[in-house]
Design brief:
The protein is an alpha+beta fold. It has a three-stranded antiparallel β-sheet with strand order 2-1-3, covered by helices on one side. The radius of gyration is 16 Å and the shape is elongated. The protein starts with a strand and ends with a strand.
Length: 80
């Protein structure tokens, strides 16, 4: 079973990397860029056939290690 996990900063929190990239793009002449946000995507494979149980385990992994629940939100999607 394959999962895609998208992790991003929570709404309203500053994204220093995104702001720096936005300014750099504007400095390069891309004046239409009004917002840039960075996140990360993790692809994870697990054994098992029970999608519900596996999804619960992946959520626990995100809360314990893969994401920082204080400053980040995440979405989990079964792929493939």
């Amino acid at each position: 079973m394959k999962f895609r996990i998208d992790i991003r900063r929570k709404e309203g929190l500053s994204d220093p990397e995104g702001m720096t990239t936005q300014r750099a793009l504007q400095d390069l002449g891309y004046s239409g860029v009004t917002s840039t946000h960075f996140g990360r995507t993790i692809y994870l494979e697990m054994d098992g056939d029970d999608t519900g149980t596996a999804t619960s385990e992946v959520e626990a992994m995100c809360r314990q290690l893969l994401a920082n629940p204080v400053i980040e939100d995440f979405d989990i999607e079964v792929v493939g």
